[in-house]
Design a protein that fits this description.
The chain is α/β, with parallel strands linked by helices and about 450 residues long. The chain is about 35% helix and about 25% strand.
Length: about 450
Amino acid sequence: MPQYDFDLFTIGAGSGGVGASRRAASYGARVGICEDSRVGGTCVIRGCIPKKLLVYGAGFAHQFEDAKGYGWTVAPPVFSWPDLIAAKDKEISRLEGIYHKLLKDSGCTLFEARGTLIDDHTIQVGSKRVTAANILIATGSYPVRPDIPGIEYSITSNEALDLPKLPRNIIIVGGGYIALEFANIFSGFGSKVTLMVRGENVLNGFDADVRVDIAKEMERNGITIHTRTHIERIESIEGGVTAYAKGGLEVSADCILYATGRKPCSAKMGLAEAGVKLHHDGSVIVDDWQHTSVPHIYAIGDVTNKLNLTPVAIAEGRALAETLFNNNPMNVSHDNVSTAVFSQPTIATVGLTEEDARKKYGPVDIYRARFKPLKNTVSGNEERTMMKIVVDRATDKVVGLHMVGVDAPEIIQSLAVAITCGATKKQFDRTMAMHPTAAEEFVTMRDKVPEPKADSAA
């Protein structure tokens, strides 16, 4: 008789947890998985997928305008927020059903209840206790808000996806990718958007040229950006809220959305009691093989707060299943992971920023292009594209690619293969361009950006 009920028990049925569980079950492991919310996790239910559907919807506003320049007579379009939300909800329910079927077909046992650790091999799942030889923590993260007076009048990205009606004007607090995506979503649907950022500019941690160019494009699209702004309190007013910031700035709107960070879902799970060590932010400490401080307890995805992206969580989970149940030791490299921001225009990047490349390699060569895409020359759209290549001068190796412009994620995803393979600038130069496309610019840039004055002097 087996010593434990399961060979693997996963707490959290998001993309990472489901991927790991299915892969483990395919190798003959007895797998249990629990979820106290909807199966699919943040990405499918309240993150990437529903948000991208709203991004698509908002993008039509620009397409209607562009069509006029190409001879189309477009009647004034009418938008229905309730219709879009209903369509979004229908698609999310369909995807959730697929996730349920995938788990069932793979032989995993799903418990639709909260899981907490009783000890290092025992999990309390709702009213039932189960045991497992190995336990996987894949509980993700949740949005957090600062503790200021009136914060209860604000919403987060979770609620923003289900608003009963489209706000006429909205304040969005934060300068990260979630804040930018929602700012562009609501702006595209016609809302007046005010973005309030504590830092010097949006997208802290991204390449400087990306940050500058996207801020310009957002302001050109009518989004008001207040930088170096710290909100002290929020007050409820008739029909909305007023945000009061240091320095006397007051902004009123129908609602205020906080996109100021996320925190790992690790509280009240019995982790510390089972001996699992946590960082000060609540994230689970893991090594390169997803081991926690307890040998047979593992963690993947956002709950580890290493690199909070859905494909990373999926890769970590599948690598763990290979290691534990297929005699194929495997871990995940977090280098050269491509990322995208679905703003208007879109942003995508892979590899190092110029600043980080200079710190790591010293002398680097920078190639940069800014241009109006061919489509916009006839449409009258003033949106511009920026592309940038960062090259390690000593080896000629391309170590960073950055783009702001239409189809940036699709272009950078393909070029990420070149970065992963260690392609050099000479190999980029030898690649024949596909004309006329925006992507060809990445293989036709020949002129280096002049060295910064400080570097030249040095």
